[in-house]
Design goal:
globular; three-stranded antiparallel beta sheet; mainly beta; Immunoglobulin-like; 0% helix; four-stranded antiparallel beta sheet
Amino acid sequence: MKDEDIYLYPNPSENILIIKGLNKNEFYTIYNILGEALIARSTSNSEEIDVKNLSNGLYFLKLDSGKTFQFIKK
């Protein structure tokens, strides 16, 4: 599977994020714009990631495989 086949939605998000296109469980970390790690967990394809407790703003979700997504929490 190519990196282009993996995507994050909805963006912007209010409560949940979903990563689509994973073919195995992946460890991820969510960082704020200062580079501080806020959430670190494992997810599988189409599993919901809870972001409702994050403050509104810009964040980065990085998969251990190296792919990084930028998303907005509103």
